[in-house]
Specification:
- The chain is an alpha+beta fold.
- Helix content is 34%, strand content 22%.
- It is built from 15 helices and 18 strands.
- Strands 1, 2, 3, 6, 7, 8, 15, 16 and 17 form a nine-stranded mixed beta sheet that branches.
- A hairpin with a 6-residue loop joins strand 1 and strand 2.
- Helix 1 packs across helix 4, helix 1 packs antiparallel against helix 15 and helix 2 crosses helix 4.
- The two termini are 15 Å apart.
Amino acid sequence: MSLDAVLSRIDTDLDAATGRLFDLLRIPSVSTDPAYSDDVARAANWLAQALAELGFDASVRATDGHPMVVAHGGPADGRHILFYGHYDVQPVDPLALWTRDPFDPAIEQTDSGKVIRARGAADDKGQLMTFIEACRAWKAETGTLPARVTIFLEGEEESGSPSLVPFLKANAEELTAEIALICDTGLYAEGVPGIVTQLRGLLGEEITVTGPEKDLHSGLFGGIAMNPIRVLSRVLANLHDAHGHVRVPGFYDGVAEPSPTLKKQWRDLGFDAERFLGAVGLTHPAGEDDRTPLEMIWSRPTAEVNGIWGGYTGAGFKTVLPSQAHAKVSFRLVAGQDPHVLRESFRDWVIQQMPLDCHVEFASHGASPASRMDISHPAFEMARQALSAEWPGEAAFIGGGGSIPVAGYFKTVLGMDSLLAGFGRDNDQIHSPNEKYDLNSFHRGMRSWARILDGFAA
């Protein structure tokens, strides 16, 4: 059977595959810092060349920002699938907290096994290379791929993807496929893979409340002058009621309940909220008190204050009544919520709470909708069985508490669902110093994609 030969090839080629990943990890493709622009382009060229060597028709495509890589391979008349990953990485600051050079990858032995240590090891270079190496093994053993494959690699994911939607619209016909495969997520638990079928969207707002035209002496003006920190604190305290529900009018409009089947599957996962929270020094779920912990993380919208400041915050003490107070608030959204409608509703709600002598200004920080996949597509069950055959635990359809906007854009711009399967772990320290990727995840990830590719064979 060709699949057995492909899996065997992956096993014997693990050292070489790891070496190729190391070559990519050595390129400091930090997309948000202009000082690394040449390195981002170098990473794109490296990937395009690697794909061309595998027989893909690969090219680097210019954008107004960092380049995209697009490659086509496999039989022209096969089922068409799109694979997405991103080759850019987060900045490495603070560098002093790294135990080694972030762009000098190495395999390290840890208490939980061998890991690949480097910036981008898990997010997302190691993950995207699992798919490319699976394609390599298929080509080496069979001379072709089991399906028509388009690979689409982005260079701006870690800096807000400003070129993504224009690029998708300009190249919609070329990129549209039966389904998109995305490898930028993680395992549900140790040895238990998950297929993310719903992702929350994200809405960000910055609030500035202004009272007096300048900072005031609190002895002269305290009590008689309105303090904007007091006003803003009251607004933020009003965001939630005593049961954890968000109080912005219309916030829950359009929010659907998970199906009974999905709720049962989530219950069967045996999620331990105390253990989950205990890892960060907490003990008790603090969200909506009429929801299960997994519902809170995966299928319910949230409102969170991410930062608040105003007045004097330096060393010592200054008895000032500040002119302004500021806060950053983010909302994680679920399917059925319109981020633009909610932005206006939130702003109106804040404005209505402004007293005399205070006014409020807002700054937008992104607005992406949530994604919910149609798991009736046969690819989802096929992929679940393929992952279950590879990993110790049975794969599950799970939710994702975070946001991967590209999945929503694939749906709204290209009209196709995304199948999100990744092999990261919660402790991979992505976006933080000493990022790592479990070597077993890299190995099994390649084997997983090889099995899924086999499922798309005509």
